[in-house]
Amino acid sequence: MTGTVRGVLAAVGVLGVIGVIAGPVAAAQNPAQNTAAKRPPGVPRGEVAIPVAGESDVATSNGPLLALAPHGPFERGRAVVVMVSQGARTTVRLKVTGVGRTAAGRTFGAHLHTGECVAGDGAAAGPHYNADVINGRKPVRVDREREIWLDFTVSPSGAAKASTAVPFAPKPGDRSIVIHDHATDHHGTAGARLACLPLTWT
Questions:
Q1: Separation of alpha carbons 77 and 96, rounded Å
Q2: Quick one: which of 140, 138, 136 has its CA closest to 188?
Q3: Digit-coded pLDDT (tens) for 40-89
Protein backbone atom coordinates (compact mmCIF):
# COMPACT_ATOMS: atom_id res chain seq x y z
CA MET A 1 0.00 0.00 0.00
CA THR A 2 1.06 3.58 -0.49
CA GLY A 3 0.12 6.61 1.53
CA THR A 4 0.78 10.35 1.82
CA VAL A 5 -0.62 13.06 4.06
CA ARG A 6 -2.90 14.07 1.18
CA GLY A 7 -4.07 10.49 0.77
CA VAL A 8 -4.75 10.11 4.47
CA LEU A 9 -6.69 13.34 4.70
CA ALA A 10 -8.70 12.49 1.58
CA ALA A 11 -9.65 9.19 3.17
CA VAL A 12 -10.67 10.95 6.35
CA GLY A 13 -12.83 13.35 4.35
CA VAL A 14 -14.70 10.55 2.61
CA LEU A 15 -15.48 8.35 5.59
CA GLY A 16 -14.79 10.44 8.66
CA VAL A 17 -11.96 8.13 9.72
CA ILE A 18 -11.05 10.52 12.49
CA GLY A 19 -9.94 7.79 14.85
CA VAL A 20 -7.11 6.79 12.54
CA ILE A 21 -5.23 10.03 13.05
CA ALA A 22 -6.90 11.52 16.12
CA GLY A 23 -4.10 10.41 18.40
CA PRO A 24 -1.26 12.07 16.47
CA VAL A 25 -3.36 15.18 15.81
CA ALA A 26 -4.27 15.56 19.47
CA ALA A 27 -0.65 15.16 20.51
CA ALA A 28 0.52 17.69 17.96
CA GLN A 29 -2.12 20.22 19.02
CA ASN A 30 -1.41 19.86 22.74
CA PRO A 31 0.67 22.92 23.74
CA ALA A 32 2.24 20.99 26.61
CA GLN A 33 3.70 18.52 24.14
CA ASN A 34 4.59 20.99 21.38
CA THR A 35 8.11 21.63 22.68
CA ALA A 36 11.39 21.92 20.83
CA ALA A 37 12.36 18.45 22.05
CA LYS A 38 9.22 16.89 20.55
CA ARG A 39 8.94 19.08 17.42
CA PRO A 40 10.33 17.33 14.28
CA PRO A 41 13.30 19.01 12.57
CA GLY A 42 12.27 21.72 10.12
CA VAL A 43 8.86 22.39 11.72
CA PRO A 44 8.75 26.00 13.01
CA ARG A 45 7.64 26.72 16.57
CA GLY A 46 3.88 27.14 16.78
CA GLU A 47 3.10 25.04 13.71
CA VAL A 48 1.46 21.63 13.85
CA ALA A 49 3.07 18.47 12.48
CA ILE A 50 0.89 15.40 11.88
CA PRO A 51 3.20 12.34 11.90
CA VAL A 52 0.98 10.10 9.79
CA ALA A 53 2.31 9.84 6.24
CA GLY A 54 5.70 8.35 7.04
CA GLU A 55 4.25 5.68 9.32
CA SER A 56 0.96 4.76 7.61
CA ASP A 57 0.00 2.94 4.42
CA VAL A 58 -3.36 3.78 2.87
CA ALA A 59 -5.50 1.97 0.31
CA THR A 60 -8.84 3.35 -0.87
CA SER A 61 -11.53 2.43 -3.37
CA ASN A 62 -14.67 4.38 -4.25
CA GLY A 63 -17.22 3.53 -6.92
CA PRO A 64 -20.18 1.43 -8.02
CA LEU A 65 -20.53 -2.07 -6.66
CA LEU A 66 -20.17 -4.80 -9.25
CA ALA A 67 -23.05 -7.28 -9.21
CA LEU A 68 -22.15 -10.93 -8.67
CA ALA A 69 -25.76 -12.17 -8.67
CA PRO A 70 -28.65 -10.95 -10.86
CA HIS A 71 -31.52 -8.87 -9.47
CA GLY A 72 -29.93 -8.35 -6.07
CA PRO A 73 -30.33 -5.34 -3.76
CA PHE A 74 -26.88 -3.96 -4.68
CA GLU A 75 -27.40 -3.46 -8.41
CA ARG A 76 -27.46 0.33 -7.97
CA GLY A 77 -25.22 0.34 -4.92
CA ARG A 78 -22.00 2.24 -4.42
CA ALA A 79 -19.31 1.81 -1.82
CA VAL A 80 -16.18 3.41 -0.48
CA VAL A 81 -13.56 1.60 1.57
CA VAL A 82 -10.53 3.04 3.34
CA MET A 83 -7.81 0.79 4.75
CA VAL A 84 -5.05 2.30 6.86
CA SER A 85 -2.15 0.20 8.17
CA GLN A 86 0.10 1.53 10.90
CA GLY A 87 2.79 -1.00 11.68
CA ALA A 88 1.11 -4.34 12.39
CA ARG A 89 -2.36 -2.85 12.94
CA THR A 90 -4.90 -2.13 10.20
CA THR A 91 -8.14 -0.17 10.45
CA VAL A 92 -10.76 -0.60 7.73
CA ARG A 93 -13.90 1.49 7.19
CA LEU A 94 -16.66 0.69 4.68
CA LYS A 95 -19.63 2.79 3.61
CA VAL A 96 -22.33 1.49 1.26
CA THR A 97 -25.10 3.59 -0.34
CA GLY A 98 -27.84 3.06 -2.91
CA VAL A 99 -28.94 -0.33 -1.58
CA GLY A 100 -32.45 -1.40 -2.60
CA ARG A 101 -35.04 -0.36 -0.04
CA THR A 102 -36.32 -3.95 0.27
CA ALA A 103 -33.03 -4.74 2.04
CA ALA A 104 -33.65 -2.24 4.86
CA GLY A 105 -33.01 -3.83 8.23
CA ARG A 106 -31.09 -6.76 6.81
CA THR A 107 -27.53 -7.57 7.83
CA PHE A 108 -25.06 -8.63 5.16
CA GLY A 109 -21.61 -10.14 5.55
CA ALA A 110 -18.68 -8.35 3.89
CA HIS A 111 -15.07 -9.47 3.82
CA LEU A 112 -11.71 -8.75 2.24
CA HIS A 113 -11.04 -11.49 -0.35
CA THR A 114 -7.73 -12.49 -1.90
CA GLY A 115 -8.77 -12.18 -5.55
CA GLU A 116 -10.09 -9.60 -7.98
CA CYS A 117 -13.59 -8.16 -8.18
CA VAL A 118 -15.09 -9.22 -11.52
CA ALA A 119 -18.72 -8.44 -12.37
CA GLY A 120 -20.80 -11.59 -12.70
CA ASP A 121 -17.98 -13.86 -11.50
CA GLY A 122 -18.02 -14.32 -7.75
CA ALA A 123 -15.41 -17.10 -7.89
CA ALA A 124 -12.79 -14.64 -9.22
CA ALA A 125 -12.59 -13.04 -5.77
CA GLY A 126 -11.14 -16.22 -4.31
CA PRO A 127 -11.34 -17.06 -0.59
CA HIS A 128 -11.29 -14.70 2.36
CA TYR A 129 -7.98 -12.98 3.04
CA ASN A 130 -6.79 -14.94 6.09
CA ALA A 131 -3.54 -13.87 7.75
CA ASP A 132 -2.78 -17.42 8.93
CA VAL A 133 -3.16 -18.82 5.40
CA ILE A 134 -1.16 -16.01 3.79
CA ASN A 135 1.69 -16.41 6.28
CA GLY A 136 1.66 -20.23 6.33
CA ARG A 137 0.63 -20.54 9.98
CA LYS A 138 -1.01 -23.73 11.23
CA PRO A 139 -3.50 -24.51 12.49
CA VAL A 140 -5.42 -21.97 10.44
CA ARG A 141 -7.85 -19.99 12.56
CA VAL A 142 -10.93 -18.29 11.13
CA ASP A 143 -12.11 -15.29 13.12
CA ARG A 144 -12.30 -11.50 13.02
CA GLU A 145 -8.65 -11.17 14.10
CA ARG A 146 -7.24 -13.24 11.21
CA GLU A 147 -9.68 -11.97 8.58
CA ILE A 148 -11.26 -8.62 7.75
CA TRP A 149 -15.01 -8.82 8.44
CA LEU A 150 -17.19 -5.78 7.71
CA ASP A 151 -20.77 -6.92 8.31
CA PHE A 152 -23.31 -4.11 8.03
CA THR A 153 -27.04 -3.51 8.52
CA VAL A 154 -28.88 -1.49 5.87
CA SER A 155 -30.78 1.59 7.04
CA PRO A 156 -34.20 2.66 5.66
CA SER A 157 -32.36 5.13 3.39
CA GLY A 158 -30.40 2.31 1.74
CA ALA A 159 -27.08 3.12 3.41
CA ALA A 160 -24.79 1.29 5.82
CA LYS A 161 -21.41 1.60 7.53
CA ALA A 162 -18.98 -0.87 9.04
CA SER A 163 -15.51 -0.78 10.53
CA THR A 164 -12.98 -3.15 12.01
CA ALA A 165 -9.39 -3.26 13.23
CA VAL A 166 -7.07 -6.25 12.89
CA PRO A 167 -3.57 -7.01 14.23
CA PHE A 168 -1.96 -7.47 10.82
CA ALA A 169 -1.21 -5.55 7.62
CA PRO A 170 -2.60 -7.23 4.47
CA LYS A 171 -0.05 -7.81 1.73
CA PRO A 172 -0.45 -5.81 -1.50
CA GLY A 173 -2.34 -7.15 -4.49
CA ASP A 174 -5.52 -7.00 -6.53
CA ARG A 175 -8.08 -7.73 -3.82
CA SER A 176 -11.80 -7.16 -3.33
CA ILE A 177 -14.42 -6.44 -0.73
CA VAL A 178 -17.19 -9.00 -1.25
CA ILE A 179 -20.73 -8.58 0.08
CA HIS A 180 -22.57 -11.77 1.00
CA ASP A 181 -26.23 -12.68 1.39
CA HIS A 182 -26.17 -13.28 5.16
CA ALA A 183 -24.40 -12.10 8.28
CA THR A 184 -21.07 -13.82 8.99
CA ASP A 185 -21.33 -16.83 11.28
CA HIS A 186 -18.66 -18.11 13.67
CA HIS A 187 -17.19 -20.27 10.87
CA GLY A 188 -16.68 -17.18 8.69
CA THR A 189 -19.35 -18.13 6.17
CA ALA A 190 -22.04 -15.71 5.00
CA GLY A 191 -23.83 -17.26 2.04
CA ALA A 192 -23.92 -16.33 -1.62
CA ARG A 193 -21.73 -13.58 -3.07
CA LEU A 194 -23.95 -10.68 -4.14
CA ALA A 195 -21.61 -7.79 -5.01
CA CYS A 196 -18.01 -6.63 -4.77
CA LEU A 197 -15.76 -3.58 -4.82
CA PRO A 198 -12.20 -3.71 -6.20
CA LEU A 199 -9.40 -2.81 -3.76
CA THR A 200 -5.88 -2.73 -5.18
CA TRP A 201 -2.62 -1.48 -3.68
CA THR A 202 1.09 -1.98 -4.29
A1: 7
A2: 140
A3: 454 455 444 334 445 689 999 999 999 999 999 999 999 999 999 999 99
Ordered domains of the chain (ranges, CATH): 57-201 (2.60.40.200)
**Cα distance between residue 106 and residue 13, in whole Å:** 27
How much helix, strand and coil, in percent to the nearest 5, is found in the chain?
Answer: 15, 35, 50
What's the rounded Cα separation, in Å, for the pair 108 and 199?
Answer: 19
> What is the model's pTM?
0.77
Assess whether pLDDT exceeds 80 at residue 181: yes
Long-range CB pairs of 72-76 (<8 Å, 24+ gap) are 72/100, 72/194, 72/195, 73/99, 73/100, 73/102, 73/103, 73/106, 73/154, 73/194, 74/99, 74/100, 74/179, 74/194, 74/195, 75/100, 76/100
Backbone angles phi, psi at 24, to 5 degrees: -60, -40
